[in-house]
Amino acid sequence: MRKIKKIVAVVLATLMMMSVAVISASAAPTAPEFKVSLVSENAKTAVIRISLEKGAFNSLNITVYGSSAVSGCTAFVQTEDFKNLALDHIINKGSQLTALTNPDTKKAAVMALLPVEAPISLFDVTLTKKTSAPLKQTDIGLVIDDCSITSDGNTPGNPNIDITDSAKVVVSLKSFSLNETSVDMNYKSSHTIDFSSNYTADELTWTSSNEKVAKVDENGKIYAAGTGDATITVTSADGLVNETCQVKVSYQWWEWIIVIVLFGWIWY
Predict the structure, then answer these.
(1) pLDDT for 27-77, tens place per residue?
(2) Does residue 121 have a pLDDT over 90?
(3) Any idea of the CA torsion for 52, 55, 58, 60, to the nearest 10 degrees?
(4) Is the overall model pTM greater than 0.70, yes or no?
């Protein structure tokens, strides 16, 4: 009987410890991931955007650095999303969120009582270029210092946890946005998928899951080869793009007449 009680006690103690571990893990703050992307570029200047892609933080310092292709910084401004978040913190949450920027040193500092949570764009930085050549991935970098978050993730006044070492920065000067994720087409019609990108055509690969229904060329133009459903997928050579668009192809009313009445299923 004593052995059974001991076994039960050990099992209960183990379960309690596991529960505490699960709760602690769920309460632990997620390390932030920041992204540097290209907004616009010409021969003389480039505008990059700093965004919080994952996780959260309460405070941090940001420093933008460049290679020999970049000579200076003329603007380091908060995005509209970040300005609206600051207003929301003050008006709806009674919490202060401040940001200080210094274009001369390419630095910004952020402090917030409540955490800033992903996804959100933070700053747009205008850089002066030394050459008219397009910026490369290695031309721009980001240093994150003094990044911290409150110990429970969301209560002002709680002790801060230094998460600087676990913060991650991804530089992706290439951008791609698929502006439509579904397309309805008529049989034998064509349609070019709407997308925004600074990738060249040879850096993108377009494929169809069912070419009997929809064929796609290297520019994202679809040809409706048959009725049914297909998935168009676009990927990039650097692995950063992997987007899909669902395509549905149907007959028009007069095409149904051809198919049914005029035996179009044989020749049409």
Answers:
(1) 455 789 999 988 888 889 999 999 999 999 999 999 998 888 888 899 999
(2) yes
(3) -50
(4) no
Six token digits for residue 105: 């040193």
